[in-house]
UniProtKB/TrEMBL annotation:
The gene is LOC105049060. The chain crosses the membrane at residues 21-39, 51-76, 88-110, 116-135, 163-183, 195-216, 261-277, 305-325, 331-353, 365-388. Keywords: Membrane, Transmembrane, Transmembrane helix. This is Uncharacterized protein LOC105049060. The lineage of its organism: Eukaryota, Viridiplantae, Streptophyta, Embryophyta, Tracheophyta. It comes from the Eukaryota. It comes from Elaeis guineensis var. tenera (Oil palm). The keyword GTP-binding does not apply.
Length: 396
């Protein structure tokens, strides 16, 4: 009786994770609709019709699958009692939604240029991982909160999901802004757009992020304790890979306007490292003394910090998509991109090291905090100036 009640409690916890996953996917799909509406005429006229048809089918299919998942999880959470058959149905829906979302991302990239077909091959090994995990989960039978994940590991998985979801939504928004921005600003030349590293990195980030979201929402049932620890390590590597991909995106995008100057965006990080080194080895001698984190383990990311980083990235991608193809010597655009790059690198580093374990690392995080605030203010002023200048140009 106790085991049955425990299994039901585990099912409810898992259903809440499924519900969070479906909400993030629905938010990304709504972003497609919001970005498509202003450029629907240009896309209809200039996009390849067959690619556009496939893209619309995949978007609608993803929407229906995610809506079904959302309704099913809401129903199960409301009534509390979850049967094995309904739980398996939820597993099928969440994996179907994840795969369809990956295919939708690939179709959107191909809508921009069919030459990206080689880039979209990345979807195949990712889908293979999803299928392997799905097959394993179906064979486990009755769903449950898997006992071989302890409380700290489940907390880590929840944290990794929050981070991967925020990174994925930011990258997906950047991809949508870039693709639809091309159609809006250069509709007649969109088929001549070369394959660029920036768009490829964005796509890699979206696919990797969708995989991370799925693997942290529905972790596989593993038979041995050392297997679960290795799985957590794999998720950590995937998380930091997402951070690295975001950095590559910013470097590739900003380099279109700044050239070699973009490497100065690492200055806040280098300065924070200098501060850390001085306090760690010169002032204290032992950076691990007399300092304890608030929770004893890595805390969950601050929602406001995730929002700031996501907003800065979205603003940078918006400036890129709107000004792509403009004069390369536009000082105002270059200055704005430079400030946005500095703000993004500072905020991303701040988010990655938000829970310092030593006083020296805490000092470095403080430097990154102030750097994020200062450069964000300059970046926002640059965005306001660009918006005013754009409005004046349209009136003329």
């Amino acid at each position: 009786m106790d085991r049955r009640a425990s299994a039901q409690d585990g099912n409810v916890v898992t259903m809440k994770r499924f519900s969070d996953y479906s909400k993030w996917i629905m938010m990304m799909l709504n972003g497609i609709v919001a970005a498509y509406y202003p450029v629907r005429g240009d896309i209809t006229e200039h996009a390849i019709s067959s690619y556009f048809l496939v893209c619309r089918i995949l978007i609608c299919s993803t929407f229906l699958a995610d809506l079904s998942l959302m309704l099913l999880t809401s129903y199960l959470l409301r009534f509390g009692r979850i049967s094995e058959r309904l739980y398996i149905a939820a597993k099928i829906l969440i994996n179907t939604t994840g795969v369809l979302m990956m295919l939708t991302s690939a179709s959107l990239l191909l809508l921009l240029n069919p030459s990206y077909a080689m880039v979209t091959i990345l979807v195949l090994p990712v889908m293979a991982i999803v299928i392997i995990v799905f097959y394993n989960e179906i064979n486990t039978g009755q769903a449950r909160e898997v006992p071989d994940y302890d409380e700290d590991q489940r907390s880590e998985l929840k944290q990794f999901f929050d981070l991967s979801a925020s990174v994925t939504s930011a990258a997906f928004g950047g991809m949508i802004a870039t693709i639809f921005g091309y159609f809006k600003n250069f509709p007649k030349d969109v088929d001549q757009v070369d394959v660029k590293f920036s768009e490829a990195f964005i796509f890699f980030t979206v696919i990797s992020g969708l995989l991370a979201m799925l693997l942290t929402t529905l972790p596989p049932s593993l038979p041995y304790p050392n297997a679960t620890s290795r799985y957590i390590t794999f998720i950590k590597v995937l998380k930091y890979s997402l951070f690295g991909l975001l950095v590559l995106i910013v470097l590739a995008v900003a380099a279109e306007f700044l050239g070699q100057v973009i490497f100065l965006a690492f200055l806040p990080i280098f300065f924070a490292v200098v501060v850390w080194f001085r306090k760690e080895f010169i002032l204290l001698g032992d950076g691990t003394s007399h300092f304890h984190s608030a929770t004893g383990h890595e805390s969950e990311p601050d929602t406001s910090l995730i929002t700031i980083t996501t907003f800065i990235f979205a603003a940078l991608m918006a400036v890129y998509s709107v000004n792509f193809g403009s004069e390369s010597d536009d000082l105002y655009v270059k200055t704005c991109m430079f400030f946005l790059s500095l703000a993004f690198m500072s905020s991303l580093s701040w988010m990655a090291y938000r829970s310092p374990r030593t006083p020296s690392l805490a000092k470095a995080v403080t430097v990154l905090t102030y750097s994020t605030i200062v450069w964000s203010v300059f970046a926002m002023l640059g965005l306001i100036f660009l918006a005013i200048r754009s409005g004046d140009g349209k009136r003329e």
